[in-house]
Design goal:
By secondary structure, this protein is an all-alpha fold. The chain is 86% helix and 0% strand. This is Unconventional myosin-Vb.
Length: 146
Amino acid sequence: RLLEAQLQDQRREHEEEVEALKNQVELMKEELEKQQQAFLQNLQLSPEAQVEFGLQQEITRLTNENLDLKELLEKLEKNEKKLKKQLKIYMRKVQDFEASQATVPAERRQHERNMQVTVQRKEKDFQGMLEYYKEDEPLLIRNLIT
């Protein structure tokens, strides 16, 4: 039954995909017919009229492209607004989390800091000599021993 259901789902998806492709082919055929008719009309016109017709076609194409780009811009602006709202929500959550972490006992925070330092040390690969200030030598020695 499960395999039958999966097979039917695949068949339905395939049929939908085939139908979409057929529609796309039909649209392309219609576009090709329009272009052929425009080309035939263009051949029958005088040279000046051909130039004018070509300009009109180019203006139409650019206008349609401009409209498409405006639609895309509007979608992107809406998406930007949505993402900004989500960012504000996440920033509030982070601030709330940090505020709740402020109430965690100091020992636990110190343990978490030590864990973070350990992770950072594993990620870094140091090579060569170490340069330090003379005042920092006791701190450096303590860190090396730890």
